[in-house]
Amino acid sequence: MTKIREALKVSFFGPFYSGYNVVAMDPAYENVLVFGENTDYIWMLSRNKTMPESVKEKFMKIAKDAGYDLNRLVWTKQ
User: For the Lipocalin/cytosolic fatty-acid binding domain, which residue ranges apply (predicted)?
Assistant: First the structure.
């Protein structure tokens, strides 16, 4: 698992901007963990329909260690 810290600024719906921080990525660039500007926003993104449980667990540990409340996560069905 590659831990990185790439800070970007993205626009959501026109004039609304937010921080988009790439925090971790697997070596094959298939899955990525992204933090927002504060602990209100977190994304676990995958190029695949499902993310391996081992990757999800690693991402959740990184998020918990960074102060994110994992009970607030909303899991989408693909």
Answer: 6-78
